[in-house]
Each structure stands twice: as structure tokens, then as C-alpha cells.
Design a protein that fits this description.
Blueprint: E1 2-3, E2 26-27, H1 35-45, E3 51-56, H2 63-77, E4 80-85, H3 89-97, E5 106-109, H4 113-117, H5 119-128, E6 133-135, H6 138-142, E7 147-151, H7 153-168, E8 184-189, H8 190-195, H9 202-207, E9 210-212
Parallel strand pairs: 1-2, 3-4, 3-5, 5-6, 6-7, 8-9
Antiparallel strand pairs: 7-8
Helix pairs in contact: 1-2, 3-5
């Protein structure tokens, strides 16, 4: 049983979503595939900026396709994408220190376990350098980040628990299709927006599932 933040087929976990073969199935929030959506939201949030940054743990095997997809999406939007390395705490600090030099108007934090573990450092740095930042999980926003779009992680854990229960009762994993979360949520922290001197567009607020005031 797995809870996969990346594409489970691309990761080699299963050969099919609907009919996984073998003795494995699970829940796939696929956070790593939502970077382009986060980039679009960053563009909507700070539409006049010409440069958007992406903070990525380049040592993660998923980073290559995340960065590739982000660059393609940025090209379509007519924006330059600058990738900042973040495979350790020191790289995170140095990347934020160079944001102003590269005239980055907004930052997308990619989905990655290490970056989640450095959540407080990233949020504090985004505030220090006053860069509007969008994250892949609402946990960042609850801790003071500006905005996030992604799957509801507690619900994904709940779905995983249901599947574990079904297999314990005799269901074969190969008979259980890989499930995607039923809810993706946009969360905005207006306290953080105010601290940044940023007016969140009404179109974004109208679509938000949660607004922290």
C-alpha cells in the first residue's frame, strides 16, 4: 500500500491506474504534477512580473520533470523561469539571497519531502526577502506561507487507511484501482499578503477554498 506524491506509473509502482497488477495499490495525490498549476496561480497573483523563480531540490529524481514542466508552462505564459537549487539548508539560504539580484517577482516551491521538512526556514526566508511564494501543501500556508494549491493531505491519509482496511479484510490490492484525492484546495493567507503589501486579486480569493485572515 502506498501514498505517492509523484506519478505512480512513472515511478514504477504500478503499470496501470485502473487495474494495478501485482500486489500493490494506493493513493496518489501526485503533488509533483501540480507545479504548472501553481505557476499559473503565481502568474495570476503577480501578473506584471517578468521573472518567476522555482525552488527545487535538484537531488530528487522527480525534480527533472518538475523543472521541465515548469519551464514549458512559463514559456507559454511569456515569462522567464529561474530555477534555484535547494538540496540542503545552505542552498536554500543562498538561493533566497540571490532572488533580488535576478529580479524574481514570485516564487514557486516544488513538491519535495526535504523542502517540506525545511518549511519554517523557507517561509521565514520568503518573508525576509518579501517574495510572494506559492506552495504545494496547505501546511505551508497554515504556518505563515502566502498561498498553496494541492491535494488535501489529511484526506489522502484517510483514503489510504480505508484501503489498508479493505486489504486486511481480504481484498486483493490488484483489484483496487489507484485513487487520486477527491479534493484539491486553494488556500490563501491574507495576513501574509498584507505583510508583503500585496493585494490578492478578487478572482483568486473567489476561488479559494480557505482564506486565513
Amino acid at each position: 500500500m502506498f501514498l505517492s506524491g509523484s506519478d505512480p506509473i512513472g515511478a514504477g509502482l504500478v503499470s496501470s491506474i485502473n487495474t494495478p497488477t501485482g500486489n500493490v495499490t494506493g493513493i496518489a495525490p501526485m503533488f509533483t504534477l501540480l507545479g504548472t498549476k501553481n505557476l499559473e496561480l503565481a502568474h495570476e497573483l503577480v501578473s506584471k512580473t517578468a521573472v518567476i523563480g522555482a525552488l527545487s531540490n535538484l537531488s530528487n529524481p522527480n525534480a527533472e520533470h518538475q523543472v521541465r514542466d515548469l519551464k514549458a508552462a512559463a514559456h507559454i505564459l511569456g515569462q522567464e523561469l529561474v530555477v534555484f537549487a535547494a538540496s540542503n539548508a545552505e542552498e536554500i539560504d543562498s538561493s533566497f539571497a540571490t532572488l533580488a539580484e535576478r529580479q524574481v517577482g514570485a516564487l514557486v516551491v516544488t513538491a519535495d519531502g526535504f523542502l517540506i521538512s525545511r518549511r519554517d526556514q523557507i517561509i521565514a526566508s520568503a518573508a525576509r526577502y518579501a517574495v510572494p511564494t506559492i506552495y504545494p501543501l496547505s501546511q505551508y500556508v497554515a504556518a505563515g506561507g502566502l498561498m498553496s494549491y494541492g491535494a488535501n493531505l489529511p484526506e489522502a491519509f484517510f483514503q489510504t487507511g480505508i484501503y489498508v482496511g479493505r486489504t486486511l479484510k481480504g481484498a486483493k490490492p490488484g483489484d483496487l484501482p489507484v485513487q487520486a484525492p477527491t479534493k484539491y484546495e486553494l488556500v490563501v493567507n491574507l495576513k501574509t499578503a498584507k505583510a508583503l503589501g500585496l493585494d490578492v486579486p478578487p478572482t483568486l480569493l473567489a476561488r479559494a477554498d480557505e482564506v486565513i485572515e
